Structures are given as structure tokens and as C-alpha cells.
Automatic annotation (TrEMBL):
Residues 1-29 are annotated as: Disordered. It comes from the Bacteria. This is Uncharacterized protein.
């Protein structure tokens, strides 16, 4: 379920998913732990103690400030704030990706040369860009 709220020119997108994993426990493609604020890969640590959530005190402080601002604004902890420009940019990239996939699908349904298929697949990869590396960067609201 998704709900969207507009507040002070910033959109808040609320994703409600049962059993959602908190952002601090997110893992990258290789299963590495990432900082709950800046999304950098956290160094491996021994088996003793609680796993790190942040790469340093500055990230821990920014996360605290963001949680406090979210609470003051009356938003839940799993709300993602996105500016209109960021949302528009993401939607544009996803539209380009969908068009590139449709182009490849059309070419596969027809008889085309290997070079044409390779060019379309190259365009598809280019349209994907760095979407696989897209991380939501947390910032304090307000």
C-alpha cells in the first residue's frame, strides 16, 4: 500500500509493507551491510556484539536529526521524502527504461540482424543506467 502526502514542497511517499526491514539493516548486492544514513558499505566486523548501523558519529547524528524531524512532522519512520525534481528524474529514467524494453521486445518479435539486436540491447543497458545502484539518501527534513 502506498500513500503520498505533500508538505512544504516536499513529497512524502509512505510504503507500507509487512515485515519491512529497517533501512539500517539494508544489504547491497553482495550482501554487505550499509550505513543507515549515507549507504556506504560498512566494514566487516567480528562475531561479538551488535552489528554496526552507521559508519561514524556524523552519520549517527544525521540519522537522529532526521528521526526527530520526522517525529515532529507527525510522519512515521518508514516515510521517504522526495523532492519533486528527484521524483521527476526517477520517473523519467524509468520511462526511458520501459521504452527501451519495448523496443527490444518489438525487435525480438520481428526478424532483425544481430547488429540491430545488439544495438537495442546496448540502448537497454544504457537506459538502465545506474538504477541498480539507486540508494535513497536520507536527509533531515526541514
Amino acid at each position: 500500500m502506498r500513500s503520498v502526502a505533500q508538505r512544504d514542497g516536499v513529497r512524502a511517499i509512505h510504503e507500507a509493507s509487512p515485515g519491512a526491514v529497517p533501512p539500517a539493516a539494508d544489504r547491497g548486492a553482495g550482501g554487505e551491510r550499509r550505513c543507515g544514513w549515507c549507504r556506504r558499505v560498512l566494514p566487516q566486523q567480528g562475531s561479538v556484539g551488535r552489528p554496526r548501523q552507521y559508519c561514524g558519529q556524523a552519520c549517527r547524528q544525521r540519522a537522529y536529526e532526521q528521526r526527530a524531524a520526522t517525529t515532529r512532522a507527525g510522519l512515521s519512520g518508514d516515510v521517504v521524502l522526495v523532492t519533486r525534481a528527484e521524483l521527476d528524474g526517477l520517473q523519467d529514467r524509468l520511462y526511458q527504461l520501459r521504452c527501451a524494453i519495448e523496443d527490444v521486445q518489438t525487435l525480438l518479435g520481428e526478424r532483425h540482424t544481430k547488429a540491430e539486436l545488439e544495438r537495442s540491447l546496448h540502448d537497454l543497458v544504457r537506459a538502465t543506467g545506474r538504477l541498480d545502484r539507486l540508494w535513497v539518501s536520507e536527509r533531515a527534513a526541514g
